[in-house]
Write a structure and sequence with these properties.
mainly beta, Thrombin, subunit H, 7 strands
C-alpha cells in the first residue's frame, strides 16, 4: 500500500487539472488532461490538498499532498512567478471548490522551496516543491498525512491519479 501511495502522489502532482473551467484561472504547466476519471467521494483521499495561488494574472489552481501537519508536497511549476508565499492558500478537506461543505481548513503558506535543479521547464524534471503552512492543519478523518513508501514500486504497479480533473471531455 505504501508503494502505491507514493506512486499515486507523484502521478497526482504531475498530472493535475482543475475540475471546471473558471474565468481567469490556469493550471501551471501543460494543458494535457486525463479524461474518463471518476468522481472521488468526500474524504476518500484525505491527504489531497487544494492550492489556490493568487496572482495579478488570475488564480492558479493546483494540488498537493499533505506530508505532515505543516508540510505539503506539490509541483514546482505551480509556484511559477510567485514572489510572496502568502499568496498561496492551501485547503484541506476540499471536495467541491465551488461549494463550501463546512469541513475545509484553509492555511497560508509561510515558506516555499522548489527543487534547486528545477529550471521552470516541467518537461526537464525536478518539478517538485515543498510548502510550509501556518498554523498546522488539524488532523482528523478528513485530513490525514500521506503514508509514504520506503521502497521503490514494482514494475507494472497500478496507481490512482488525484486532482480536480474532468470525468468527460470538454
Amino acid at each position: 500500500m505504501y508503494v502505491i501511495a507514493t506512486l499515486c502522489i507523484f502521478c497526482a502532482l504531475v498530472l493535475q487539472e482543475p475540475a471546471y473551467a473558471l474565468n481567469n484561472v490556469t493550471v501551471g504547466g501543460e494543458r494535457a488532461m486525463i479524461i474518463g476519471g471518476e468522481d472521488a467521494q468526500p474524504g476518500q483521499f484525505p491527504y489531497q490538498m487544494f492550492l489556490r495561488v493568487t496572482k495579478d494574472s488570475g488564480d492558479n489552481l493546483c494540488g498537493g499532498t499533505l506530508l505532515t501537519e505543516k508540510y505539503i508536497l506539490t509541483a514546482a511549476h505551480c509556484l511559477k512567478d510567485v514572489i510572496n508565499p502568502s499568496d498561496i492558500t492551501v485547503t484541506a478537506a476540499e471536495y467541491d471548490f465551488f461549494t463550501p461543505e463546512g469541513n475545509e481548513q484553509d492555511r497560508t503558506v509561510i515558506k516555499m522551496t522548489s527543487h534547486e535543479l528545477y529550471n521552470g521547464d516541467s518537461k526537464l524534471g525536478y518539478d517538485i516543491a515543498v510548502l510550509q503552512v501556518s498554523p498546522a492543519f488539524d488532523l482528523n478523518n478528513l485530513v490525514t498525512t500521506a503514508k509514504l513508501s520506503t521502497s521503490d514500486p514494482d514494475p507494472g504497479v497500478s496507481c490512482t491519479i488525484l486532482g480536480w480533473g474532468t470525468t468527460h471531455e470538454v
